Amino acid sequence: MRYLLVTAILVALAPAVFAESPAGKATVMFNGENLAGWRGRSDLWAVVDGAIVGTTTAENPLKGNTFLIYEGDVPGNFELTAMFLIQGGNSGIQYRSRVVDEKEFVVSGYQADIDDALKFAGINYEEKGRGILALRGEKVTIAEDGKMAKEQFGDAAKLGESIHGGEWNSYRVVAKGNRLQHFINDVLTSEVIDGQPAKASTDGIIALQVHAGPPMVVKYKDLKIRSIAE
Length: 230
What we know:
mainly beta; ten-stranded mixed β-sheet
């Protein structure tokens, strides 16, 4: 009886983020060998040493952002996990997104941001939409009329210290109802409660970004997704 009482107390006191861990079986999104199940520009994306690699060069700069699009099924509510490494430039994991230019593989929607300078890594950015929804260390609640109420739960620079530049890092995205959470190396970096029906998205594609601008290399591996209940 004492054990059950202690357990109940610990569960009651546990932070809300732990409630997001789903029990469903994860789907492996990348086979580690080739880009089967993904589509994008073949001159920018390849598989090298078991990782998806996106590369841009100074000799052939991009005119705009482009993406490698996942073709598998994506649940509306999910937990996505991946490992990433970036050298130069900016990238990100798109989710609950839509294709706006199939020829150039351009998408619009929520993005779990990644950048080499560690300025934007972990933020929530809406590509070709409302722009930055939450900076690192922010919980932002978006009202029906689009007004944003911001709460600071952590210092952006301090949270950035948990991200390892030029090394592999883990990313976890939890999308449950209108609540969107980003974690890097198991540290919560941003949270958005999107209550603007005219703009919010409840489902859509997943994609990986290479960004216009300076030359860059971004690598992804161990991509998995699992459905969670709303």
